[in-house]
Amino acid sequence: MCGIVGAVAQRDVADILVEGLKRLEYRGYDSAGVAIIDNENQLNRARRLGKVQELADALQAKPIAGGTGIAHTRWATHGAPSEINAHPHMSSETIAVVHNGIIENHEQLRSQLQDLGYHFSSETDTEVIAHLVHHELKSAKSLLAAVQATVKQLEGAYGTVVVDTRDKDRVVVARSGSPLVIGYGVGENFIASDILALLPVTRKFSFLEEGDVAEITRFEVNVFDIDGKPAVREAKESEVCHDVGDKGEYRHYMLKETYEQPTAIRNTLEGRLQGNMLDNQTFGAGADAIFQEIEHVQIIACGTSYHSGMVARYWLEALAGVSCNIEIASEFRYRQSHVPKNALLVTISQSGETADTLAALRLAKEIGYRASLTICNVAGSSLVRESDLAFMTKAGAEIGVASTKAFTTQLVGLLMMTLAIGQHHGMSVEKQNDIAQSLMTLPNKLEEVLALAGSIEELAEDFADKHHALFLGRGDQYPIAMEGALKLKEISYIHAEAYAAGELKHGPLALIDAEMPVIVVAPKNDLIEKLKSNVEEVRARGGLMYVFADASANFSSDDTMKVINVPVCDDLIAPIVYTLPLQLLSYYVAIIKGTDVDQPRNLAKSVTVE
Ligand code: AGP
């Protein structure tokens, strides 16, 4: 959730660290800090409450020199957002530590350390790491050994980076549950929680694995595995471009990423579909044998990714004839579930690091799932590394906390997965052709949808004074209504709920009045007449509706209803097409409300803690 950057170099690293933090700010943004060892072997620390820019301004006013440093942008878990709780945390002016994750036994460790005479200056769980390393160094022969001894005492999740003024050209890092990536430079090396932070300084990276501890100097990287044995973590060139952190002509990343969807989907399709045939590398080696054998699919995800999985359930059962369940990762991981015979576990995640989803995958492996597949946007992420099969969405880096292009490319991946599984389960050639052709029309269709932005912006005005909103959909548009509601609440802070429209009369109708806008997702499909009945139920109770429908659905605007005409599209891709107007609606409502669109309050992009 937080962001980490570290560097060991000959040059001053403050600017590199701050630029890295700016690129990671979407992960956590309540406070930020750096600690740098200068040429006199002194640790100099600067921390600020608020955005990274506050820290950058402080460093501009009072620069800190030095070639070894660590930096952090925080999303508070233990201890309120404040300067004293901001990382790095220090022990005795010699040790400085940054940490992502949660140390679950911090209270017990804190009391042990207090008994040993350590004084705590923050409310964080992280500070125990700094004092523990300091304590271990009294007997350990090196910083590496002290960190190895420290992590053995930690319970919970951590990605942590430690520096010591008495060993100034070295950083020691440890990973368990929170990702860390090493960046290789020339005569300088780096560490970060995400490659995005380091793209201005290197393109060569290796990922640490669970339980790894590593020491990094300017010329050397030594990695030790969970058993303390030397380990090789292969370094690879990244294909991600350097300017991914750039908003370009757009006011917000979210808007840029919304407009990038036609391209992101073209990239996700490219080279994978030839006619109705999928390239056999699309889901990785061995996919055909697994797809042939499976009799059931269990999908696991969180948030927006969960909504894409909900759509996939409609597709898999209707088109591929394979039974499918979907569950939120944080529920699945803590209940005893029945494992169907020959079941494929599918995780869906933009980041590939979501703690609950990762824990659910690990559990599924233990309880007997036949195989695992992840639909993911980040190469080298934990979910990709730990799953048997992976489908990489090619959305490109998504910086806005509100997921847009990651969601629609996930849906593309899931429809391709439906095609691939269906090919092994008797799907007709005609149906295969329909899916393939619909997918190929998608990027152009989305360009048409984006042309609606002006009219949606006007519509957004109606929401400026609203406190609640209800989203309705049926069938595979029900999850799209849920995603629309999540987007609206996430970035505009308007309370929004989604219902399967058939559920209205079972409770939510009681909420309907002129103050409760009702957004209806209504493409012309087999359920349109049923949906129209639900629309009438709302109209009869004085509700004000905003209906997204194609012209053939025959809705017309009047006193009770504003109709936004969405281009006609094939039913198969309608969930993807109807997502974009809802993204644009949330965006423009948030603009009117004046919220922080890209970094909404209390949220973080990558949820690496429970
Ligand atoms: C999306 O707008 C949200 N910010 C959030 O629900 C997100 O989808 C969820 O945290 C899951 O993340 P993941 O896809 O990286 O696993």
From TrEMBL:
Its main location: cytoplasm. The keyword Cell division does not apply. The keyword Signal does not apply. Residues 286-427, 459-600 form the SIS domain. PANTHER family: GLUCOSAMINE--FRUCTOSE-6-PHOSPHATE AMINOTRANSFERASE, ISOMERIZING, GLUTAMINE--FRUCTOSE-6-PHOSPHATE TRANSAMINASE (ISOMERIZING). Homodimer. Catalyzes the first step in hexosamine metabolism, converting fructose-6P into glucosamine-6P using glutamine as a nitrogen source. This is Glutamine--fructose-6-phosphate aminotransferase [isomerizing]. It comes from Colwellia chukchiensis.
